[in-house]
Amino acid sequence: MKINEQLFKEKIKPLFSRAVFCSVATVDVEGKPHVSPIGSVVLRDMKQGWFFQKFTKNIPQNANSCEYATIMAVNDSKWFWLKSIFKGQFKKPPAMRLLVKLGEVRCANEAETQKFQRRVGLFKRTKGYQLMWQEMANIREFEIIDYKPIYVGQMTKQQFA
């Protein structure tokens, strides 16, 4: 799908920014699929992004045999879904898939770390924060190859209008 700068800024980037988590689908050397939840996907611009890679075992292994993956974000706002169902249409995409080429893992820079910490800062004094997010060090960059919208019949006919 062709994406222009306005569509990216107004509809796609906000979807990924607000998603509580995204799904990253990869395949292993035998062609078996695996989906991993990732809560830190950031779209840098229309062509590239990154995510923290901390708890994933399969992504590093699968990336060695196949550098391609699909990342999906879903708008999980109950208000968004309720409003859309009553109106009979989605004004913004309910979900979006990205076909990506995975890059190498590298250490996160200060700006990337701070960006993620702003997302989870509300939970800083919790045990869960200490166990999951206190030390996020390594990110995996990706190149966006294509945008694959999620279509739900007539409900999505105007989502990119």
Q: Tell me the Rg in angstroms.
A: 16 Å
Mean pLDDT: 87
Helix amount: 25-40%
Overall form: globular
The name CATH uses for the topology of the domain at 5-104 and 141-150 is Pnp Oxidase, Chain A
Give the helices and strands, then pairings.
Elements: H1 5-18, E1 22-27, E2 33-38, E3 42-43, E4 48-52, H2 58-65, E5 68-74, H3 78-87, E6 95-107, H4 110-120, H5 127-132, E7 138-149
Antiparallel strand pairs: 1-2, 1-5, 3-4, 4-7, 5-6, 6-7
Task: Please characterize this protein's 3D structure.
The chain has 5 helices and 7 strands; from the N terminus they run H-E-E-E-E-H-E-H-E-H-H-E. It has 161 residues and is α+β, with helices and mostly antiparallel strands. The chain has a domain at 5-104 and 141-150: Pnp Oxidase, Chain A (Roll). The protein has a 7-stranded antiparallel beta sheet with strand order 2-1-5-6-7-4-3. Strand 3 and strand 4 form a beta hairpin. The radius of gyration is 16 Å and the shape is globular. The model has no long low-confidence stretch (mean pLDDT 87).
Task: Give me some keywords for this one.
161 residues, alpha+beta, Pnp Oxidase, Chain A, seven-stranded antiparallel beta sheet, 5 helices, globular
Task: Describe, in short, the structure shown.
The longest helix has 14 residues, at 5-18. 30% of the residues lie in helices and 32% in strands. With 161 residues, the chain is α+β, with helices and mostly antiparallel strands.
